[in-house]
Amino acid sequence: MRLVVGFTKPRNSIIGLVLSGDIESVGKDVKKFKQGDQVYGMTGFGFGAYAEYKSMSEKESTGWCLAIKPSNMSHEETAAITYGGILATHFMKSGNIQDGQRVLIYGASGAIGTTAVQLAKCQGAEVTGVCSTNNFELVKSLGADKVIDYKTEDSKNRLETYDFVFDAVGENKSSELKVQCRKALGQYGKYASVDDGLLKYRSEYLVQLKEFIELEK
Ligand SMILES: NC(=O)c1ccc[n+]([C@@H]2O[C@H](COP(=O)([O-])OP(=O)(O)OC[C@H]3O[C@@H](n4cnc5c(N)ncnc54)[C@H](OP(=O)(O)O)[C@@H]3O)[C@@H](O)[C@H]2O)c1
């Protein structure tokens, strides 16, 4: 990461990866956006989002992407949803969730997990969220049907058989329960983890997220 970001300190002294704002002006060859468009996205390792202005290329790279923001959210809200939303949209696709399936989100209260719970619920799944007890109400309010605390001793006894298990926490944080979650898959069950490869940030995820968020109107 130091090679990418800067060895002794960040190359760009203005940090910040996620942004939401109005397009101030566009170059003459820009087709996708126009002045006044309200957009949200990620800057990638070029950083610079914690500023009033950010110059970006229209063409996305593996590191940055931009799209029109959801109309029913403020800039503050869309900036907050961007990072977790992109990751959750990407990984939840691999579950190919069908109506009525059982889905378990491990790390349901995190930046990625909170969007994953809502996406699974929107696809008609019966959702179980794993998080701390003090986040139970939050996760239930997002649509989880059941919640399990990864810290409690009897948690593994509460597991059922799932069609899709998504680890939204990653390898850095684990628990005995996580090992059991992986084993709680049905015959054709699928498993995905946020650590499955370095993600390419694509504006199509932002477009999908916008459509999903606007369903709430
Ligand atoms: N593939 C990629 O390109 C990519 C890019 C960026 C990040 N990532 C991965 O995403 C991870 C960060 O996700 P995030 O930003 O959503 O995290 P986050 O917002 O910090 O959420 C952390 C979640 O983990 C839970 N948790 C905390 N300690 C835990 C433990 N010991 N055992 C089990 N769960 C625990 C938290 O639950 P409570 O708070 O309720 O306890 C919360 O639900 C990174 O660690 C990295 O692995 C992947």
Features:
binds NADP nicotinamide-adenine-dinucleotide phosphate; globular; five-stranded parallel β-sheet; alpha/beta; 217 residues; single chain
Notes on the structure:
28% of the residues lie in helices and 20% in strands. With 217 residues, the chain is an alpha/beta fold. Strand 4, helix 3 (111-122) and strand 5 form a beta-alpha-beta unit. Helix 2 (75-93) crosses helix 3 (111-122). The longest helix has 19 residues, at 75-93. Bound molecules: NADP nicotinamide-adenine-dinucleotide phosphate. NADP nicotinamide-adenine-dinucleotide phosphate binds at residues 84, 87, 107-113, 131-132, 135, 150, 168-170, 172-175, 194-195, 198-199.
List the helices and strands and how they pair.
Layout (H helix, E strand, L loop, with lengths): L1 H4 L12 E5 L15 E5 L22 E4 L6 H19 L8 E5 L4 H12 L3 E6 L4 H6 L4 E4 L12 E6 L8 H8 L1 E9 L9 H12 L3
